[in-house]
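Q: Structure for this?
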Amino acid sequence: MIEGLLLGLQNVISPLNLFILFLAILIGFVGGATPGISGAMLILILLPITYGMDPIPAFLLMTSIYAATVYSGSISAILFKTPGTPEAIATVFDGYPMAQKGQAGRALGLAISSSAIGGTIGTVLLILLTPLLASLALQFSSPEYFALAVLGLTVVASLSGGDLLRGVIGVLFGLFIASIGIDRMTGVDRFTFGSVDLRSGIGLVPILIGLFAISEVFSKSNESAQIQQKMMKVKTKILDMKLLKSLKGTIGRSSLIGTFIGILPGVGATTASIVAYSEEVRWSKKPEKFGTGTPEGIAAPESANNSAAMGAMVPLLALGIPGSVTTAIILGAFVLHGLQPGPMMLVNEKGLVYTIFVGLLIVNVLMLIFAKPFISIFQHTVKLPYTILGPFILIFCILGTYADRNSIFDLWIMLIFGVLGYYLSKIKFPIAAIVLGIVLGPIAEEEFRRSLLISNGDYTIFFTRPISAVLLIMAIVLLVIPLLRGWRQSRKTQQSKKTA
Amino acid sequence: MNQNITLSITTIIFSIFFLVMSLQLPPAKTNGQIGPGDWPTWILVLMLILSIILLGRSILQKKKISTVNEIEEEKISGDGQEGENHRKHWYVVAILCLYLLMLPFLGFFVSTVIFIVVLTWFFGMKKWRNIILTAFLGGIIFTYVFVTALNLPLPRGKAIFHGISLFFQ
C-alpha cells in the first residue's frame, strides 16, 4: 500500500496534475457554494471536457470537485440559510443562527476546519478499507456478483425516504430502462420499436443529466425573480485551536459515523450529516442549545458529511457499486473512460486508484489554505444572476450529453428525463432509486443469467455458495427491517389512537 | 396523496404496455435457461403488482384523510410552498425542443446564439445590448472550447448555415 501511495504522490505532484487539482478545488468550492449547483451537477457538466483527457487527470478533477463541493455547501448554508449543496442541509440548523448573532466568520471557520478533519479521517479510512474489501471481492464469480448487485439494489430501503413501495417501484423502473436495447447474450432486440438509436440502449449520461441537471433548471425557472443575496463582509478565522480542542469528541464521533454511513452502498453524505447532527443532540448534556447557533451543531454535520463523501468511494472503488448519487455519476464516468471499477481495478489500475487517494488527501489539506481567498472569490461570483447561469448550464448539459455518443437522439432522451425528473422531484419520488436500478441492472441481469449457465439452470447455486448466500440474506434483511419497522410504527399509532 | 394515485396509474399502464411486448420476445433456446424476455417480464410483473398495491394504499389513505381533520391532510401532502409560477418550466421545455429541432439545420453556433438570446430574455434579462452580447460571447466561447479545442463533432447545419459554422470555428 505504501508503494502505491508513493506512486500516487508521484503522479499528483506533476505540474499538470497539481494545476488540475487546484482548478478542481476552485471550481468545486465556488460551484458548491452557489445554491442550485450541486457536486453531481458540476461533475456532469464537466464530463465532456474530461473525455479528451487521460484517466488520471480526468478522475483527479472529478473526485476533487466532488470533495470540494461538500466543503463549500456550508458557506451559503451559514450565510444565506440556503444550503449550497444538499449535503449541507443540517449545517443550516446552527450555522445560520450563529451567523445571525454576528459570528459568521467563526461559523465559517469552524465549518471549514471540521470539514477538513472529517474529510481527512474519511480519506484515511478509504485508503485502508478499499484494498481489504477489494481483495475479498477478488474471489467472486457470477453468483456473487449477482448477489452483490441485489444487495446494492436493496439499498433503496434507505434511499426511498420512508416510502419503501415507491422506492422499489423506482428501482424496477430503472432495471427496466436498463434492459432496453440489444440483449447482449442472445442478440435479440428488446423494446426498440425498430429504432436504430434504441438498439444500443438508453445511455446513462443523458438520463443522469436529464434527471439531475435539466430538471433543476426547470424548477429554478418556476421560482420568482432571483433572490438578490446580500453578502456581508465576513472575517473568517479558519483554525481556532481552542474551539477545535473543545469539539474534538464531537468531530471524532461524527467523522466515524459519517464514514460508516458513507460506506453503506446507496446512503450518501446527506443522510450522514443529518444522522450525525441528531446523534449529537441525543448525546449532548444541553440539547436545548441546538438550533440557537451552538458550535457542536456545525461541527457534527460538517465533519460527518465530508467523511461520508469519502466513505462512499469505498464501495465504488472496491466493488463497483456506487455509494451515493454523485458516486454513481463517477461510476458512469469510469465506464465512459473504458474502466470498470471493482476488485480488478485495484490490480490493473493501481496507479489511478492511488492517485485518486493521494489527491483526495491533498484536497483536504489545501482546503484549509485556500478557503479564505475562495470565500472572497465566491462573494463576487454569487452576484452572477440566474439569467446567465441558467442558459449556460443548459448548454453545458447539451454538450455533455452530445459528447457522450455524438447523438442528437440522446439529447431528446435527456429532455424527456429532464421533464420526468422535474415531476418526480416535485412529488418527492426517490429519483436516486431509479439511477440505482439503471446502473446495477445490466450487472444483475447478466450475472444472473451467467450463473444459471454455470449451474445448468439450477437456481440453488445462489444459496449453495457461501458468499453469495450471505450477501443475499443480508439483502433480504435490509429489505425486511424497514417493512417491520413501518408495520410496528403503524400499530403503535393505532394503539395510541385507541387509548386516546 | 392524489399524486400517488396518478403515479401508480401511470406505472400500471406503463408496465402492462411493456409486459405485452416482453411476452412476445422469443423464448430461450435451451431448456433451463432464461430467454431475452424473461428478465424484463419478471421486472414488469413485479412493478405491476407493486403499483396496484400503491394505488390501493393511496385510495385507502385518501378515504381516511377525508374523514379525519384537515390539519393532518396538510401534514401529509405538505408541500404547499411552491414558487409563484408553476407553468414557466413548460416554456423552457418548448424552447429546448425548438433548439433540438433547429440544431441539425442551423448548426451549433447559430442555434446556440438564438437559444441564449431567447432564454436570457425569458429568465428576465432586460437590456437588449446585454442579451446580444451574452449570446454572441457565449456562442463563440462554447464553439471555441468544444469544437475547436476538444474536436467535438457538433452539427454544422445545412446550406448557408454550414458556412457560418465553419467561419466561427
